[in-house]
Amino acid sequence: MTDIITALIDGETISAGEAPIPVVNPADDTLIVELPEADDATVDRAVAAARRSFDEGAWRAMAVEKRQAVLRRCADLIDAAADMLADIECANTGIPRAQIRNRSILRAADNFRFFADYIGQSVGALYEQNPDYLTFVRREPVGVAALISPWNSPLALGSMKIASSIAFGNSCVLKPSEQAPLGISKLVSILGEAGLPEGVVNLVNGRGASTGDRLIRNPGVDVVTFTGGTPTGRVIMRTAGELLKPATVELGGKSANIIFDDADFEQAVDGALLGIFTNNGQQCLAGSRILVQRGIADRFIEAFVERARKIRIGDPLDAATEIGPLVSQRHMQHVLSFVPGAGAEGETLLTGGRRAPQFDRGCYVEPTIVRADSNDRRVCQEEIFGPFAALMVFDTDEEAYRIANASRFGLVSYVWSQNIARIMEAQERIEAGIVWCNTPMMRELRAPFGGYKDSGVGADGGAACEAFYTRQKTVTIPRRPIALRKLGV
Ligand code: NAD
Questions:
Q1: Atom 13 (ligand 1) nearest CA
Q2: What's the start-to-end Cα distance of the chain, in Å?
Q3: Is 250 known to be catalytic?
Q4: Domains of the chain and any CATH numbers
Q5: 13, 194, 291, 390: least CB-packed within 10 angstroms?
Q6: Does the C-beta of 433 come closer than 6 Å to ligand 1?
Q7: With a 6 A CB cut-off, is 257 part of the ligand 1 pocket?
Q8: Comparing C-alpha atoms, which of 181, 232, 224, 221 is closest to residue 203?
Q9: Contacts of 266 (CB under 8 A, 6+ apart)
Q10: What would the pLDDT profile of 4-33 be if each residue is shown by its tens digit?
Q11: Is-catalytic flag, 34?
Q12: Which DSSP state fits 418?
């Protein structure tokens, strides 16, 4: 029986609301639950709870050692519930359970441990150049954070937002994606046992345009952080801008994966496969535009396509499954709409391109690879967000950089070469917030993760989150009594 969590406010579960959202298992299209949406009054109550807990100050004034201990207990509770969370998340998203269990849930627990460690080392600044004064700069928590998260990795991304906001003493209200609310709602519900004061972490479920918009606009919210699609990011920035609320938006990508002719061939093939087919291809950081140098292109394409054809597609609960169903029928139709039709110009379907015919039900799409003759093709410019790679062949390094940068996105990029000088040149030339060299998807939580161009504004990561979730306060004190000019004497 699935818990019905419309909202979690002050530790209380609310299971009533309006306009129920059908939450579906994409592996067999069955309805898991009809989840009532949090109405306006519930959203306002959640913000009021966060506001009250922040203003009363039990959490932000707590000794850092104690706050660290609570954050570490959050991580331990997630570890202890890992199997249950994996089951729920798998049923709701279709992501292979093994990937959820071994990646997302470890990451969710790590997010809390990382920020627990981080706050133990936070420092302010001191200016003492002026011999008569000391000026120091402190960081204070910013208040109540509205956290809006997407469906593609709810546990990892939702927990990152919670951990990074509350670690610095803030209170928060999370609104997960209405497509995949179940796992992250359960995760938030188990945090109740960690010793967080009431009202520090709250959650509301509902659709973006109703519940999400209400949350952002509530005057009790001080900052907004959003991860999701670029069009939604623009709406959120506009709303936050009108209200003068600081906002970070982490958005989509169409990341270039450049394979130079001196790459370690096996590693490049393995890395390219992982870069596009992990998480059912539904990753902002997918290496979805594969650029391969002409000298090795035939051999690479042959190996890449052959391996993609052998990827095991199936029941996401099966430990052997490498690709499960996409998140919904609607999203499956979106992905399939990019498959070039018969006689399409400039795009050649090398494998896949259909709903996997061996399944009667569910949202299964075959790993799909399209070779494009130009970066201007639709498959090279738009975020498809599925197991769908666009391949291009280039001749010179200059051409590779030109193609890589000819995109409105700039989230991550991948470079494969055994020549360190080439790697160093590439990391400078590529317009993207993250460059992975000879490795796929190595997330260093200490370092910023954020995109250039239409891939976002702001970043996650240790110092980046500290800057966003705190305000600086400058305090000046004379070192000894000072002679003040006397007015009116
Ligand atoms: P989405 O933009 O449709 O929705 C994201 C969230 O925003 C959901 O919770 C939704 O309910 C909410 N929302 C929608 N409209 C809103 C509004 N007007 N006001 C407030 N909230 C609103 O994105 P999605 O389809 O859930 O996620 C997929 C997208 O997320 C992809 O583009 C992917 O690249 C991106 N993504 C980016 C990163 C990153 O770190 N850059 C990470 C993961 C996913």
A1: 208
A2: 80
A3: yes
A4: 7-251+455-475 (3.40.605.10), 256-437 (3.40.309.10)
A5: 13
A6: no
A7: no
A8: 181
A9: none
A10: 999 999 999 999 999 999 999 999 999 999
A11: no
A12: S
